[in-house]
Amino acid sequence: MxxxxxxxxxxxVVAGVMLLGASAGLTGTFTLVRxxxxxxxxxxxxxxxxxxxxxxxxxxxxxxxxxxxxxxSGWLSLxxxxxxxxxxxxxxxxxxxxxxxxxFGLGIVLLTYIQHSGYGDQAGLDKFLFGKAAxxxxxxxxxxxxxxxxxxGVVLVFFRAFRMLAFDxxxxxxxxxxxxxxxxxxxxITVLVVATGIQAVGVxxxxxxxxxxxxxxxxxxxxLWSMAGLSAxxxxxxxxxxxxxxxxxxxxxxxxxxVVWLSVAAAVSALxxxxxxxxxxxxxxxxxxxxxxxxxxxxxxxxxxxxxPLQLTAFSKEDIxxxxxxxxxxxxxxxxxxxxxxxxxxxxxxxxQLTDKGLGESRRVVRLHxxxxxxxxxxxxxxxxxxxxxxxxxxxxxxxxxxxxxxxELCYPARDPHxxxxxxxxxxxxxxxxx
Amino acid sequence: xxxxxxxxxxxxxxxxxKPVLWDVDFQLPQGSLIGIVGPNGSGKTxxxxxxxxxVQPDSGYVEIFGKPLEQVxxxxxxVPQRESVDWDFPISVREVVEMGRYRPGRLLRRLDSxxxxxxxxxxxxxxLEAFADQQIAQLSGGQQQRVFIARALAQQADLYLMDEPxxxxxxxxxxxxxxLLAEMKVAGKTVVMVHHDLQTVQExxxxxxxxxxxxxxxxxxxxxxxxxxLRQAYGGQLTILSKVAHLVEEHDFPVRDRSxxxxx
Lengths: 435, 264
What we know:
The structure holds two protein chains of two kinds. Chain A is mainly alpha-helical. Chain A has 19 helices and three strands. Chain A has three domains: about 1-275, ABC transporter involved in vitamin B12 uptake, BtuC; about 280-355, Arc Repressor Mutant, subunit A (Orthogonal Bundle); about 360-435, Iron dependent repressor, metal binding and dimerisation domain (Diphtheria Toxin Repressor, domain 2), CATH 1.10.60.10. Chain A has helices at about 1-5, 10-35, 35-60, 65-85, 90-115, 125-130, 140-165, 170-175, 180-200, 205-220, 225-250, 255-270, 280-305, 315-325, 330-340, 355-380, 385-395, 400-410, 425-435, and strands at about 315, 345-350, 350-355. In chain A, helix 2 (about 10-35) runs antiparallel to helix 11 (about 225-250) and helix 13 packs across helix 15. The longest helix of chain B has 16 residues, at about 170-185.
């Protein structure tokens, strides 16, 4: 890696692809929040005919002409999509699909024509399909640098205006913002970043460079500023990674590895991001399930105590299992957990009973269950045979605050709709109202 | 009649060649709470949007405070329908309300301390101080509606055009919004509001505009909000008009004869 980075050409490639990644990530943030994710793909594909025409007209592979061709045909594609969506009943996604395939088809026709008509200098034009990141020249990198600086500048200056446009177009227009101008500027930097980007990663993969960093960044943050920053950072590290891989293993292509890195980053984000990530959500679900298991077992204790005439307080696992229809393995684990929490204890070898703390908890769960049943029955007028199942779930969810409000609204009731007693921690409370 | 806040003359608007407002004429007084009422698809939102210049009329014009919109834009504030934006957008309550302080002429300038104070006050007036730095997705529907209203308050306008601010709103938010409307009225502001709930029209508004593609009635609630007018607005005896609208759409026929010179 050290020897690789001391090569000035390699340095140029690294810098170029990183700059490109950063500007694509920044621009893509707005493409994503405006829900135009497919746009980048369409623009990229639509640039091929422009590149080919520029070559046909000038007869040389001058990067400036090719870039100009790409820009013009990218812009035309945008206008066509806009025109179709505005003046026909076709939906925007249909317009994107039509424009993408028409322009790209035309591009392939031109490319094939060029390849078969003996232009001396045509070799390498097909690099636009998959990119040529590994063979970027210092000149290319200079162009990337200027484009990146321009895009960063525009985004910094217009950030709040772009955000307003993306969030609420009508409000921005009503407030007298120059929405058409802002849309034009936003579209221009998108076309610009795509036109430079296809030289590095190619037409086919450009959409990934535009959208994936922003999509990954969205998982980690709830603010557009940090999303844009993170997205730019991801884009540039992807550039570094792609160039690094193809430097270490020359058979490896740069552009595709950039995209692979981005996809991995997006997948990791979807999996591991706090709150929004799949792991965080499944952990939350698991915690909820554990809480329900614990509270259900506590409730079974309470119901066993309530039902037996001998005032027994200690029960065998079989009693509890029968009472609460638990699966044996779950009951065993849950009892062990409750014991660690000091809510139940073993009195003799085979008998379990609630501790004082456990008794309070079990009373609370039963109370919430019966309060909720009463609420559904009295306040919402639901039939008494419909309310139990709802209460089975809601009893685990109600917060102390909600409990207090229920108690106040129902005036500290003594019995639920099935005439079971509602247990209170303070026995006077129920006696008072029972009178 | 008091000074005029909004005047529409001969307003005709169509979407995809289907007329949604036909020859609508009205004047709305300043300093009142005005409800726009009518069945679904009767052009209520379109009316607000054409007052705000967001849709181009086929004919007619709107004047605000006796002037074209462009000259008085800073005095007008628009509250779109809540469903018209993506509430999962990565933005905080404060950042949304700050949009009320962006003005065309100073698009690139940072907000100064006066702007920031106005934003703080606006958030406080709708009772969302505790949520100022939260992402908007975490709010309830009613709170989201209040964010929109706070953004409008931050614009410090004289005329407020609100598209169904009471839709999908909880009791707390409804009370908060009503309280604000009362305060705005005392301050001499004009509020024009698309409203869905006929039950509350008499309670909320001074003035009502009944709409069903054409104007059914426009006047003080006591005289315009009559059973007869309501039957006209909601009765659906517009079969001929809607058939003509359908014909216009089918044949892509112009609603106005463009070969003649128009008088506006």
